[in-house]
Amino acid sequence: MPDTRPGLVLHLAGVSQPLHVALDNAEADALRDVLADLMANGQTKALTTADGGSFAVNFAHVATAHIETTRSDANAYGAPARGTGFGRN
Predict the structure, then answer these.
(1) 64 FRET partner, CA 20 to 30 A, in 11, 17, 36, 81?
(2) Number of domains making up the chain
(3) Residue 28: exposure state from Cβ atoms within 10 A (0-12, 13-18, ≥19)
């Protein structure tokens, strides 16, 4: 069975494909409690990604958002397996 982690799925206004963000477990738990308020008020929030990075979301530009438990996905922003895309010398 593949490894799973919580992910934030953002449907941005004017963009046809959703954006997937792999979240730190503690960040996902905290976000579940405030996501509706962030959406209602169009606030900006910095989130901790699964790889320990930071990802800022301006919820004023988000049409819908939800948190889901996803399989390990190398295409999700912030997924540890994804890496930065830059090689190390």
Answers:
(1) 81
(2) 1
(3) buried
pTM for the full model? 0.81
- Residue 23 is assigned to a structural domain of this protein: yes
Instruction: State phi, psi for 26 to the nearest 5 degrees.
Output: -65, -35
Domain for residue 84, yes or no? no
Instruction: Please report whether residue 87 resides in a domain.
Output: no
Q: What type of residue sits at position 13?
A: A
Beta bridge partner(s), residue 8 = 21, 67
Please indicate, yes or no, if residue 51 is contained in any of the structural domains. Answer: yes
d(CA 76, CA 60): 21
Q: Are 52 and 5 in contact (CB under 8 A)?
A: no
The string of pLDDT tens digits covering residues 45-69 is 999 999 999 999 999 999 999 999 8
Place of tokens 């405030």: 34
Range of the domain at 60: 4-71
